[in-house]
Task: structure prediction
Amino acid sequence: QVQLVVSGGGSVQAGGSLRLSCAASGFTVRPYYMAWFRQVPGKEREEVAFIDLYGRTTYADSVKDRFTASRGSKNYLYLDLNSLQPDDTAMYYCAAGNDRPLNYWGQGTQVTVSS
Result:
């Protein structure tokens, strides 16, 4: 049974940093794609970072040069959030799969940035 467990959210002041982690288990092979999404109530879900098995990554324009996604061993996915701004406040989700759209999702973790 595939499971994605997300951790690392919290509250920080503007300009601060956080690291989110996603531990994926239950895959028989490493998922080709892993990604971070975020959502604010009343708004559409936004793809923050998308990374393939070879580390090729795409970022939303709103987070480029501030956020860094990386894949670790044993199907871990990380998101380093730097220079956080109040507009980054959202619920952040991890997702994984071998095709788009990704079909496995973790629970969200709240990131709150105060000015």
User: Anything to note?
Assistant: The mean pLDDT is 96. Residues 96 and 104 are 5 Å apart (CA to CA). The two ends are 41 Å apart (CA to CA).
